[in-house]
Amino acid sequence: MNATATLDHAAGALRRAGVDTPQVDAEWLLAHALGVSRSELPAQGARELSAAEERSFLSCLDRRARREPLAYVLGEWGFRRLTLSLDPRALVPRPETETVVERCLALLAEAPKPRVLDVGVGSGAIALAIADEHPFAQVVGVDSSEAALALAEGNRARTGVDGRVRLVHGDLLRGVEGRFDLVVSNPPYVGAEEWERLQPEIRLYEPRAALVGTGVGEVIARDAQGLLVEGGVLVLEAGDGQAAHLAAALDDLGYDGVAITPDLAGRDRVVEGRRP
Q: What is the Cα–Cα distance from 25 to 31, expressed in whole angstroms?
């Protein structure tokens, strides 16, 4: 089949499999198999796939039809200015987490050489994006998963942030040493009772420990007080509908200037507060 017929076949297969964006995902998969960008696909319409390209494409299509996340099938995903390697060792970075990074960068804009701690670094998305976009930031990323840290290590090498990101194995903030101008985290915030209702892409493939948790943001907020410098800022991602509760917890802990920022979809998503 040529590229156009292959694309039509794939979109239909993904639609039948219940994928939310079958046409877009089919385009990503075909571009990946052909070694071109998605924007270049229209020019490939009459091209006949080689045997190797067809095998690669059908393998990827089968994985996506089984609801494996597109980012895992492709093996990489874009996050802000970066392209990160991705696999089931860490969560797929979401657009709402880009809003977290946006807030961090705004808060650090006047800091000449800020020290940043990313709690639950995962693939390295937040830590590496901050280091990439603030050229003088020194970032520590901590995670309890050695597998996730290995993935972040590869992404650190891939993104070339000049040795300004250090990765540490640890459980939340326990054992973390130093003083920081900003502590940031996208903590687990999915309730255990919600797990079975999640999309197959999440429930069957993404690491459960990085998703499911209750009160983790509050624990980070409490423990961060001993690591933040005076005037240092805590920035947390909150689950849908959870931001007000988390903001109240920061108020109760004595943080100043507690604020909530919506994500691009208008959902309250980012909670921040400043240590007095």
A: 10
Tell me 195's DSSP state.
G
pLDDT, tens digit (0-9, with 9 covering 90-100), for 68-124: 999 999 999 999 999 999 999 999 999 999 999 999 999 999 999 999 999 999 999
Residues paired with residue 237 on neighbouring β-strands, in sequence order: 270
Residue 55's Cβ-side half-sphere holds a number of Cα atoms within 13 Å equal to 3
Residue 223 buriedness (CB in 10 A; 0-12 / 13-18 / 19+): middle
Q: Which tens digits make up the pLDDT trace of 169-199?
A: 999 999 899 999 999 999 999 999 999 999 9
d(Cα 226, Cα 238) in Å, to the nearest integer? 22
Q: In the beta sheet, which residues pair with residue 79?
A: 82
- For the chain, what percent of residues have pLDDT higher than 70? 100
Q: Which two tokens stand for residue 199?
A: 């999309």
Q: Which letter does DSSP use for residue 115 in this model?
A: E
Q: What is the dihedral of CA 70, 73, 78, 83, to 10 degrees?
A: 180
Q: Residue 31 phi/psi, 5° resolution? A: -60, -40
Secondary structure of residue 57 in the 3-state scheme? helix
Under CATH, to which class is 87-274 assigned?
Answer: alpha beta
Within 10 angstroms of residue 70's Cβ, the number of other Cβ atoms is 22
In angstroms, the CA 38 to CA 23 distance is 12
Distance CA 223, CA 49 (A): 55
**Among candidates 274, 239, 222, which has minimal Cα distance to 103?**
274
Contact between residue 221 and residue 234 where contact means Cβ atoms under 8 Å apart: yes
